[in-house]
Design a protein that fits this description.
alpha/beta; signal; 24 nucleotide stem-loop, u2 snrnp hairpin iv. U2 a', Chain A; Receptor L-domain domain-containing protein; 10 strands; 5-stranded parallel beta sheet; 18% strand; Rcpt_L-dom
């Protein structure tokens, strides 16, 4: 009977260890390499992204979000903390991208061989929808590559975002042109970092 108790205790201990280890492991997912091309319809592309990134913490590769309508829900991106490649946000109509937990872009691959973060032309042509807020409130490091944020007519910003503190590669470019109007810095305003960060 003592042997049976020992086996039972060992099984309980192993089960607890497996559960504990599973709780501390980071969820890693694969990125994409499509750049500005799309596969299938917008719905197919959205469904693939949702399946790939729900619960993901580390994107091994690139995070590319392109050609999405304003009514899409991207809350499934909230858990992402790190991207090893680049982030491309282009030709979308949604108002906010919830990458609030993102802390680091490694830039092991770069968009157009130059940019770790590219935010391009995110507004509805002749319409009222477009990117107003990136939600990158915890982004602290871009290890390789620069930043390109251009032609986002609804994306306002504060000039206090110091990209040179975030971009660690001193030779990389930071290009910010043709976006929404500059806002005054107001630390009391909720989400004042809804600018480019």
């Amino acid at each position: 009977m003592t042997g049976l108790r020992q086996v039972f205790a060992l099984c309980v201990t192993l089960t607890w260890l497996q559960f504990t280890c599973a709780q501390t492991q980071e969820v890693i997912c694969s990125g994409t390499q499509n750049a500005l091309s799309v596969t299938g319809s917008s719905q197919t592309q959205y469904t693939l992204m949702k399946d790939m990134y729900s619960g993901c913490e580390i994107v091994m590769g690139n995070l590319e979000i392109t050609m999405m309508e304003h009514w899409r829900d991207f809350t499934f991106l909230q858990s992402i903390r790190e991207v090893t490649g680049y982030i491309l946000i282009a030709i979308n109509q949604f108002s906010r991208l919830p990458l609030d937990q993102l802390r680091i872009i490694r830039g092991t691959t770069l968009f157009e061989e130059r940019f770790a973060l590219a935010v391009l032309v995110n507004y509805q042509k002749d319409g009222q929808h477009g990117l107003e807020e990136l939600g990158l409130t915890h982004l602290t490091e871009i290890l390789e590559g620069g930043v390109q944020i251009i032609q986002n007519k609804f994306l306002s910003y504060t000039p206090q975002v110091n990209w040179l503190d975030i971009v660690k590669d001193g030779a990389s470019e930071v290009i910010i042109n043709e976006n929404g109007p500059e806002r005054e810095y107001n630390p009391a305003q909720k989400g004042f970092m809804n600018t480019f960060v």
